[in-house]
Amino acid sequence: MSDSDNQRDNLFAEKMLPGDFVFDARVARVFDDMINRSVPGYSTIIAMIGVMAERYCRDNSAIYDLGCSLGGATLAVAHRVSCNNYSLVAIDNSPAMIASLQNKLLDQDFPNTRIECRCEDIRQSSISNASMVILNFTLQFIAVEQRTELLRRIYEGMNPGGILVISEKILFPDPDLNALMVDLYHSFKENMGYSKLEISQKRAALEKVLLPETLSQHRARLESVGFHTLDVWFQCFNFASMVAFK
Ligand code: GEK
């Protein structure tokens, strides 16, 4: 698939039977449009991941983009980092996403950067010598009871001084505030051109697949595996990105 194949997301525009969301070829084809119109601040988060990578990448180390999809974060890093002998490892378990990313990379040349694309489950990935790990809206798709183990392995695979960037859709403990944030988010989606039918069908499809938690739950988990300094660096409504240091 070439960049010109990236299409507008109208996957939920027609009335359809209920079913769980999957990252298949139909989603990969529209993904760039989908994520830009569905995550408030996505382009800012991607650009700032590049800025953080420039600061924290070390010579002879690795940067991991876990759940890379079409490589938004991978490409932002590759464009900004000029370390010597570093590698960028982009991992996703959707064959359609990885195939599409590999295709995208054919048109680009990053002389300093070795980019390795892996189609595998991040719960089984080996992570080592990492100066940076990116989980940009990926942990929310991992079963809640498997998240601590994944973060523990990430922590173990990171070098001291390395950073983890973790972006998630979040819940608010106060039910009224949570309802307001969800409502504001739906207004954002309408502003981005999605109809009420598209918004409600997508919401239903994600219900059992995307499992958000509160910021306190994320903080507690990150601290429990050893991250000592962490905070939110970006938030818009019920979408937040955190940075944690080893
Ligand atoms: C971006 N980070 O554009 N193993 C590997 N990949 C997985 C797994 C798993 N167990 N579970 C889900 N994924 C990207 C956006 S999208 C976020 C990330 C969204 C992958 C899944 O195939 C999909 O490509 C990605 O995680 C989540 O910066 O769609 O809201």
What general form does the structure show?
globular
CATH topology assignment: Rossmann fold
Q: What oligomerization state is this entry in?
A: single chain
In DSSP terms (H or I, runs of 4 or more residues), the helix count works out at 8
What are the low-pLDDT stretches, counting only 5+ consecutive residues below 50? none
Ends: how far apart? 38 Å
Number of domains: 1
Number of strands: 8
Task: Describe what you observe in this structure.
Strand 2 (86-92), helix 4 (95-106) and strand 3 (113-119) form a beta-alpha-beta unit. Strands 1, 2, 3, 4, 5, 6, 7 and 8 form an 8-stranded mixed beta sheet that branches. The protein is globular and about 50 Å long. The longest helix has 17 residues, at 175-191. It is an alpha/beta fold. The model has no long low-confidence stretch (mean pLDDT 92). The chain starts with 24 loop residues before the first helix and ends with a strand. It has helices at 25-38, 42-56, 72-80, 95-106, 147-157, 175-191, 196-206, 215-224, and strands spanning 62-66, 86-92, 113-119, 130-136, 158-171, 213-214, 229-236, 239-245. It has one domain (1-246): Vaccinia Virus protein VP39 (Rossmann fold). The protein has 8 helices and 8 strands. The structure holds ligand GEK. The site of ligand GEK has 20 residues, from helix 3 and strand 2.
